[in-house]
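--- STAGE predict ---
source: upstream dedup step, 1 unique chain passed
mode: sequence only
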Amino acid sequence: MKIYYVPGLLSLLLLPVLFIGFLKWSGKGKVYYVMPLISVNKEYAKKHPFLFPEGYPPKRKYEDINITGVAALDEIKLTYSQIRVREMLQQNNASQGIHYHFGDSATYGSFIKALNILHIEMAEQYLVDENDIWFLNVPRDTTPYKGIDCMLVWCVAEVPPRETYWEKLLIKMSEIWDSSWWLIIGFSLYLIAIWLIRRTPSIK
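--- STAGE serialize ---
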């Protein structure tokens, strides 16, 4: 007569189902947003001054918004800055700007909120430089052009080598492991448990 621990067997059988169910549930309802962000390379700007003919940062009468990490005060400052950004854009103000400086105690949420303000107000010109964001307005050139003007720009870039089949496979396996390592380990333990049960001698 073989003796098996029925609750243990049921647990092992239900384990993969529970893992898969939890995997689907954990990712349900989550929405992720991505904001493209380009940071300024100071050294590159120095080597190519034509990119910033007015200097770096471009010369303006900047209003300083110092974010210190005090939640209530930072909220007031950010709200005020949004009003000023909107006014500068509506007035097409090219002589003033906003300078956000994030202190050592400033939160990451404040930094994201400042970027979100510029995104909401449809600001097109701003520079991100480590702990600073410089907002400025550059009026659009409305001069009518006669004829056709052409400009040829040569760009030199290092083309990365193509990935081989095995490299792509390794990258894919690494992505699967990073996202589902706990599921892989759990299912492996389940298979090991089944193998051990089959190897266990029966008691008559």
